[in-house]
Amino acid sequence: xxxxxxxxxxxxxxxxxxxxxxxxxxxxxxxxxxxxxxxxxxxxxxxxxxxxxxxxxxxxxxxxxxxxxxxxxxxxxxxxxxxxxxxxxxxxxxxxxxxxxxxxxxxxxxxx
Length: 112
Fold this sequence. Notes:
Elements (H helix, E strand, L loop, with lengths): L1 E2 L3 E8 L1 H13 L5 E14 L2 E15 L3 H11 L7 E5 L2 E2 L1 H11 L6
Antiparallel strand pairs: 1-6, 2-4, 2-5, 3-4
């Protein structure tokens, strides 16, 4: 097990109908190594002075810190929401093999 500070987990919610296409685009573009899609979650949130409740999908993405700004911009350009949820947290620890795989896939430090 190694320090996983360079590996980040990014959480994004999206309408279920666009979750797969969004995820595939980000993987194909080399911005994330993989995305886990939790098909249906219920979200309750405040928006424009109202309490809203919707079914969404939760996307759990794995990438490296150096890719976050580019990833965030791309999510915002592809996403149907005006203000998509994009929350990134650094991994405290990651298995050596998994960390290497993520870095190999996204090409840590370079722009693919």
